[in-house]
């Protein structure tokens, strides 16, 4: 069985998986083409994001297959989801902000419906 979370020992000290995410992952709703929840150690892409954006504490949980957008949780923005355009120059990486995981999830479902 595939694991959709990272071992708690590998998580940043400021982060805990939200119950909404655990619910979706436990139901295996992980492929919402073009979005895909990051599986296991892929979620540890936070190290790469930290190298690209050292002034931010980001923890990615989904990536978009048709571009470099990554859905993340960010320290200090509890409950919100930030969309980061990875590989953009620092200061130009912000692609969007959702007030909650469910708001992001609804948008991801709309992206899935509109995907061709």
What does this structure look like?
With 116 residues, this protein is an alpha+beta fold. The chain has one domain. The chain is 25% helix and 24% strand. It is built from three helices and six strands. It has helices at 19-26, 46-52, 101-114, and strands at residues 31-32, 35-37, 58-64, 69-74, 81-85, 94-98. A six-stranded antiparallel sheet has the order 1-2-3-4-5-6. A hairpin with a 2-residue loop joins strand 1 and strand 2. The radius of gyration is 13 Å and the shape is globular. It starts with 18 loop residues before the first helix and ends with a helix. 28% of the residues are buried. The mean pLDDT is 88.
Write the layout of secondary structure elements.
Blueprint: H1 19-26, E1 31-32, E2 35-37, H2 46-52, E3 58-64, E4 69-74, E5 81-85, E6 94-98, H3 101-114
Antiparallel strand pairs: 1-2, 2-3, 3-4, 4-5, 5-6
Count of individual helical segments? 3
Binned, the helix content reads 25-40%
Strand order of the largest sheet: 1-2-3-4-5-6
The overall number of domains is 1
Q: Tell me about the biggest sheet?
A: 6 strands, antiparallel
Radius of gyration of CA atoms, rounded to a whole number: 13 Å
Give the termini separation: 29 Å
**Structural class, from helix and strand content?**
alpha+beta
Percent strand? 15-25%
Written as H for each helix and E for each strand, in order along the chain, the element string is: HEEHEEEEH
Q: Mean pLDDT score, rounded?
A: 88
Overall 3D form: globular
Unreliable residue runs: none
In total, how many beta strands? Answer: 6
């Amino acid at each position: 069985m595939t694991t959709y979370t990272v071992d708690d020992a590998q998580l940043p000290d400021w982060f805990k998986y939200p119950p909404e995410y655990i619910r979706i992952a436990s139901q295996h709703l992980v492929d919402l083409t073009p979005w895909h929840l990051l599986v296991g150690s892929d979620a540890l892409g936070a190290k790469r994001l930290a190298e690209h954006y050292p002034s931010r504490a980001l923890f990615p949980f989904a990536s978009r297959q048709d571009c470099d957008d990554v859905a993340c949780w960010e320290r200090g923005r509890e409950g919100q989801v930030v969309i980061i355009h990875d590989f953009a120059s620092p200061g130009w990486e912000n692609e969007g902000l959702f007030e909650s995981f469910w708001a992001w999830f609804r948008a991801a479902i709309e992206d899935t419906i509109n995907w061709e």
